[in-house]
Design a protein that fits this description.
Layout (H helix, E strand, L loop, with lengths): L1 E7 L18 H9 L1 E3 L2 E2 L2 E2 L1 H10 L19 H7 L3 E6 L18 E4 L14 H4 L8 H18 L9 H15 L6 E7 L10 H5 L21 H31 L6 E7 L4 E2 L5 E2 L7 H4 E2 L2 E3 L8 E3 L3 E2 L2 H9 L14 H6 L6 E6 L4 E5 L2 E5 L10 E4 L11 H4 L3 E3 L10 E5 L14 E4 L13 H17 L4 H6 L8 H19 L2 H10 L11 H17 L4 H11 L8 H9 L3
Parallel strand pairs: 1-7, 1-8, 2-13, 3-14, 4-15, 5-6, 5-7
Antiparallel strand pairs: 2-12, 3-11, 8-12, 9-10, 15-16, 16-17, 17-21, 18-20, 19-20
Helix pairs in contact: 1-8, 3-10, 6-8, 13-15, 16-19
Length: about 600
């Protein structure tokens, strides 16, 4: 038997014609729909990129125990299990996170792998003066430039070596997969993972696809700012148009895989899975990007297609709940291998074959941010409880972040913890942390949506009985997945045991929300007047703490004169330090 997993990063289901009526040209996804079983209630698990890939290797949620990081010594890795049982595994990808600190143990699990260079500021082509020599950097907003200038300047250098479509990372990635298929067309017992970083931003798109949407490469540099910016309609349509063009390019290269499967009659013995890790927001809910806002359906509700040659079921849909943790179990079962006891995901075979229900409900989320539960009809988003920041810990034996190691000062209070059965007798480091992707989710509050009737999540529901029902499901799943005990306190779940507890919590949180809303005019004033372009970059910790403390005191006074604010800023911050808030303060005080 053989299996191909074709994965795109950040693929929105509502931009694909099999799922939605859309103006995006995706004829090969429509062709794929006819060849496969399409899942209509498929969800992410852990977010974003590498946390999702740990789910896809291990069949377990990453986000309950730690943030972005490598595979752990005790993890069961699906590709490695295949390899250990005589099934050749190969990955070809342009996903640059595989060769950063936080992804460094994933690709060696395969029998062989090919890493395609050049995506998203990958440190590929060398240029000493790239920050000054690359056109366009000087026009970036200061706050965005502070966070992204190095990646952007490197990306613009890399693009100079990818002028032809054939040199584009997606083209080279799929070509690498096609070469594997040609080389091994007479072989058996293999698994091929073709993983494209597109259509993840930056939206770097050959002119051919942009022209289909009336755009050119001069219209936008492709770098999306994660924000709640109110872009002009024209700019918003340009940014969405670039994403559409990139999705159409994904469709074109999907077609090349389908062509080979047709030509070589691979439908008889080769499983095909086409999936993604997550989506993103392109103006929906007044947000752009991911990570910094609740995990709305545009991010969490995913496209998923599967062909199982053993079942021969195609051109059908399934409504049963499934998610990314089910993929490794599905592939292992296909190759007649035992699914490890610690995998919580379930094989999809029974869903395809007999419409079985394998999950009554499921969790998804980012480490440290909102925790979410979905069942057949509802989605409940729960925010970290105010004042419980000290209850957040990472549990890991691989202390690395996305692109760095843990700092020595973070490790000083680390303890060895033996709480979990899935670590196979090994202890993990228990490290208190405040390092996660968005620290201001409390402003959104808890949200309940009727997913079936309101898939756009435009109408939050106030229903204490239903909220308590979803909390019970959430806590049950947390227990089944061995969520750390402090996490219940972190989310305020340690005091919810009845519907009355939910009502009391809602009243308390509403009082706090009203108190915070009194300060909104202060944030709006500061941002509107442009005084705080401010601080993600102050190096002196004591000075940073003083500025934040003073800022809080000023906000509590409510009345701020222009001269007061101007004088305070001039006294407290020199020119080098002005990279603080336009974004941070507005986000921290914004009530959605």
């Amino acid at each position: 038997m053989k299996a191909i997993q074709l994965m795109f990063d950040t693929l929105k289901r509502d931009y694909l014609s099999p799922y939605e009526h859309t103006d995006v040209s995706t004829p090969n996804f429509k062709r794929l729909q006819q060849k496969t079983v399409q899942f209509d209630n498929f969800f992410a698990g852990s977010l974003p990129c590498m946390p999702a890939r740990r789910d896809l290797h291990t069949g377990r949620y990453n986000f309950l125990h730690r943030g972005w990081g490598p595979l752990e010594p005790f993890d069961d890795s699906m590709p490695e299990i295949l390899k250990s049982n005589g099934i050749y595994t190969h990955m070809v990808t342009d996903h640059k996170h595989y060769w950063r600190d936080g992804g460094s143990t994933y690709h060696p699990r395969y029998s062989s792998y090919e890493l395609i260079r050049g995506q998203e500021g990958d440190r590929w082509k060398a240029r000493v003066n790239k920050d000054t020599d690359v056109e366009g950097i000087e026009h970036l907003p200061d706050a965005f430039k502070t966070r992204k200038a190095e990646s952007m300047s490197q990306d613009f250098v890399n693009r100079e070596y990818m002028e032809a479509e054939s040199e584009h990372p997606m083209a080279r990635t799929v070509q690498g997969g096609l070469e594997f298929l040609e080389e091994n067309k007479d072989a058996d017992q293999w698994f091929l993972q073709i993983e494209c970083f597109d259509p993840h931003e930056p939206f770097f798109v050959p002119e051919k696809y942009l022209a289909m949407y009336g755009l050119s490469q001069d219209d936008f540099n492709g770098w999306l700012q994660y924000s709640n910016d109110d872009f002009t309609n024209e700019k918003a349509e340009v940014m969405k148009g670039y994403y559409k063009a990139l999705v159409t390019m994904c469709d074109e290269y999907l077609g090349k895989i389908l062509d080979v499967m047709d030509e070589q009659n691979m439908w008889q013995d080769t499983m095909l899975i086409v999936n993604t890790d997550h989506g993103l927001l392109l103006g929906e809910h007044d947000w752009w990007g991911k990570n910094i806002m609740p995990v709305y359906n545009e991010i969490a509700h995913l496209p998923f297609f599967i062909w199982n040659p053993q079942l021969q079921v195609h051109d059908e849909t399934r409504e049963q709940l499934a998610q990314n943790i089910d993929v490794p179990a599905t592939i292992l079962e296909f190759f007649d291998l035992e699914v490890p006891e610690m995998m919580k995901g379930k094989p999809l075979r029974s869903v395809i074959e007999s419409n079985d229900v394998i999950h009554e409900s499921a969790l998804f989320g980012n480490f440290g941010n909102n925790i979410n539960v979905v069942d057949g009809d509802y989605i409940y988003m729960r925010t970290p409880y105010p004042g419980r920041e000290d209850y957040l810990y990472e549990y890991t034996l691989m202390p690395m972040r996305m692109n760095s190691r843990f700092k020595p000062e973070e490790m000083k209070g680390a303890e060895l913890d033996h709480s979990f059965s899935f670590t196979k007798g090994a202890g993990t480091l228990k490290i208190q942390t405040s390092d996660f992707m968005a620290k201001s989710h409390q402003r959104f509050g808890n949200k309940l949506f009727h997913h079936a009737e309101d898939p756009g999540q435009k109408h939050p529901i106030t229903d204490p009985e239903k909220e308590f029902e979803m909390i019970v499901k959430m806590k049950q799943l947390m227990e089944e997945n061995e969520a750390p005990s402090p996490l219940y306190a972190y989310y305020g779940l340690d005091h919810i045991y009845s519907v009355e507890d939910v009502r009391q919590e809602q009243e308390e949180l509403n009082r706090e929300k009203e108190a915070v809303s009194e300060h909104i005019h202060f944030a709006d004033y500061m941002v509107k007047e442009g005084y705080l372009t401010l601080i993600a970059s102050i190096q002196d910790a004591r000075k940073k703490e003083k500025i934040q403390r003073d800022l809080q005191e000023i906000s509590e006074q409510h009345k701020v004169t222009e001269n007061h604010l101007r004088n305070w800023l001039q006294q407290e911050m020199d020119e080098k330090d002005r990279a603080f808030l336009t974004y941070q303060l507005n986000m921290a005080l914004r009530i959605d």
